[in-house]
Structure formats: C-alpha cells, structure tokens
Write a structure and sequence with these properties.
- With 121 residues, the protein is α+β, with helices and mostly antiparallel strands.
- The protein has a two-stranded antiparallel sheet with strand order 1-2.
- It has five helices and two strands.
- Helix content is 44%, strand content 12%.
- The protein starts with a helix and ends in an 11-residue tail after the last helix.
Length: 121
C-alpha cells in the first residue's frame, strides 16, 4: 500500500522536473497579481502598476514566486490610516485619513488564505 507521504514525494519530484508546471505556477502568480491590481483603487494608476511578480529561490525544489509591491505608501491603501493626530505636521494636509481597501487581503481570502505571516519588504 502506498502512503500519502510517498504519493506527495512522487508528485513533488514530478513537478521539480516539469517545465510546464513551472510555467503554470508563474501564470498562477500573474493571475493573483492581476486580481490584486483589480482590487486596488485607481487614482493615478501608480499603486496598481506597482504590483508585480518576482521569481524567488525554489523551496525544496518547488517553484516559488513573490507577488507584491515596494511602493512606499501602499500599506496605507492596504490597511488604511486613522485621522491625523492633533498637531500633526503631516505633509499631506491636516485631515488625511485613508479608508482601508485591503486588496491583498481580499484576494488572499478569496483563495482560502489569510494575510497572517505576509512577507514585508
């Protein structure tokens, strides 16, 4: 009788050797990127355009991709901001609260995941 672990090892070995599977994982990452872009509010388009896919080092021989942004203010879009503190010297104005749009969290939730343990760069 074949164990679940043996089946998993055989599947992983096949994926490591399969160029088509590597391409499919990249396509899946690009699909996630596109969903996040669609959830991102558009003012200038810069925030949505900043979301991209990067190849990462394989993990245990399995293809790995990073979908994210390095736009310095994207966390304001994801998490929102509260009202400015009294006496704030905000360069954006005296009252600049931003609503929480959570494009990454919405897409993660849609695919059965969460934002727990998300990599922040």
């Amino acid at each position: 009788m074949t164990s679940l672990r043996e089946i998993q090892r055989e599947l992983e070995a096949g994926i490591r050797k399969d160029a088509e599977m590597r391409l499919k994982t990249k396509e899946a990452a690009e699909g996630i990127r596109d969903e996040i872009r669609a959830e991102t509010p558009v003012r200038t388009g810069k925030a949505a355009a900043s979301i991209h896919v990067e190849k990462r080092k394989d993990r245990r021989g399995m293809p790995a991709w990073w979908v994210g942004t390095r736009l310095w203010y994207f966390h304001f879009i994801e998490n929102g901001t509260g009202p400015d503190k009294l006496g704030s010297k905000s360069p954006f104005g005296p009252d600049t609260p931003t609503k929480e749009y959570a494009p990454f969290a919405k897409v993660a939730h849609r695919h059965g995941g969460s934002t727990d343990g998300i990599e922040v760069e």
